[in-house]
Amino acid sequence: MRPFLIQGILLAAALAALIAARSRLEDLGVSKMRDAAQLQESLYLPNPRAVTFISFGYKNALAQLLWFKTISYFGKHYRGDGNYRWFNHMCDLVTTLNPKAKHYYQFCSAMLAWEASLPQQAAQILTKGISNNPEDWYLIYQRGFIHIFFLNDEGSAKEDFVRAAKMPDAHPIVATLASKKILSMDSPEQAIEFLTQMINSTSDPSAQSVYRDRIRDAEYEIGFRILEEALRRFEERNGKKAANLEELASEGLVPDQMARDRFRDPFGGQYILDPAGSKLSSSSGKRRPALYWKLAEENSNSD
Hints:
mainly alpha; single chain; elongated; disordered C terminus; 65% helix; 15 helices; two-stranded antiparallel sheet
């Protein structure tokens, strides 16, 4: 009978959580929503303290149920409209119910920063994770990366890298970051290195897809930078602007692979130089990231 008792308790807890959520709908502005899908999603949002109180000692089990909801919610909007309105709250909820689940913090913070353009919230969720898991070097390293790449906070990033590097099981890359001059906020190469590690550290398909998309963004930016430097050197060498990208290749100013690929970009288009030899673009029609973490910061400042 015990399994049925536990299931009953969890169902009662979930029901009570939904009732608590309904009482908060007006505060969250949900009462003004006319879209049925938004209303349904808002019911994922009980108050963390209320759910802790009514979980009857089964917080971890309830957290796991709500974690599946969180993953499902993210995947739905990643494949759909890209609107992650409730994602941060859901992450706060599951990490309150099970504060020791490190993978909750890792996934939530990465998706908040890299996909939802909410780096401040990502840093906050990592701070919560570090407080509950102070021995975990990876959470500290992750927060340091967000500090420098998204929040332009070099001092806090350096502190996190140094702290993480002192832990016995820390990856060697952390010691490298702690010992050398802090990496540039404007470094797509560093972003690729970090994102590649993130791909290898998760088995979630949606998360891996986000990381691969961001790697393509960084590679796209690298292509522009290579060509900009080649154009500068061509003009310096010849006293005139290049008429086309092929002239850069003929003088050995671009990587051989880029020339062999006919200046193809990571999205299947081609880099293009305007007739005046001064403006680069791409036939893929994708806007240059420049870089996307900077754009995320600008967007948050304009809200």
